[in-house]
Amino acid sequence: MMIKFFSCYFLCTLMLAFLSTDFAFPAELRSATPQEWDAIVKRAEEEGQVSVYATDSIGNAQMIWAAFQKRYPKIKLSGTSMGRGSDLFPKLFAERRAGKFLTDVFLGAPTALYQNLYRGKIIEPVAPMLVHPGVADLSKWWMGKHHYIDPENQFVFMYESALYGPPISFNTNLVNEKEIKSAWDLVQPQWKGKYAALQVGANQGSTALTYVFYHPQLGPKFIERLYRDMEPTMFRELRQGTDWLSQGKFPLCFMCRRVDRAAMQGLPVAELNPYQIEEKPGLGSGSGALALMNRHPNPNGAKVFLNWFLSLEGQIAFRQANTDELRVGSLREDLPQEILPPLARRRKDKDYLWINRPEWMDFKPIHNFLDELRKPR
After folding, report:
1. Which of the four, 186, 255, 276, 377, has the lowest number of CB atoms within 10 Å?
2. What are the backbone angles phi and psi of residue 319, rounded to the nearest 5°?
3. 23 or 375: which carries more pLDDT confidence?
């Protein structure tokens, strides 16, 4: 009896410890009162600045910086925006190795932030910082919650809403879009030898390819059909495929980049519309996420920037900084529809496949599958 008692006591104690840890569950959100928010802003103005690092995935960063500066002129925004995460992360880590902790907030792709900053254990929870009523109110967000890519729902916040479908593009002079009812229509024998396809590198990841690989209506079989049975011509330079497509050298392209931008320039190219095929569309934050650096130098400035950027005003600025991205919007529910292109508007009649899941972040299974496809049969 005594053994059973201590066993039960041990299990209950262990369960209580598990339930009480901040590492298991997100912090409870509490909106600041107007007076509390004014006090936060005042302290941030006394600090005088906030430092933000951003990859070029944020869009026109200068538009975002200017919008923040207009709202909070007494808080100088020191913004550093350059290239991809592979360009900016080395700079950040070099600074920290030298004992320089200069950055408050980092904006970039969710997987990159997770792999580099979260796993590097150099970021703090974002959730406790979100106190502005317009941000802490979960009804303002898709599915009534904030979206994080880390298992603790605390550290890497995703704000971007991007529409995904099978990453197939076509030359509009050579392919009749009205005849396409399913992505599978484009991997039939008549298209053999008529594809250009991206050769995915050993260190490359892709949200679009993750969508296809795990999609219940597509999956590895679809990738195999395209990469092997269609006998595509491979390219490594990201612009090469779109150039070939626009020139009509190939009628179809898998994993071409910047096709929407090329179409806006009047070139005869288009990307498969996820809303016009039978496969479930995907939703994800391919590039739009943020993290709060630990040992950040401006705690109040960081809090003001985070809450402003995730507010309606901040997310409108983000959208306006991405006018050439036809599928990119915000996970906020209250953005004016008129500022969103049709493919950036979530539809109530659609069930989406959410892509940014912790269990799908490891690209190794996809790399291994692609390696197998490259082996001669």
Report:
1. 377
2. -65, -40
3. 375
Write out pLDDT tens, residues 89-140: 999 999 999 999 999 999 999 999 999 999 999 999 999 999 999 999 999 9
Q: One-letter amino acid identity for 277?
A: I
pLDDT digits (tens, 9 = 90+) for 318-352: 999 999 899 999 999 999 999 999 999 999 999 99
Q: Are strands 252-254 and 168-171 parallel, antiparallel or unpaired?
A: antiparallel
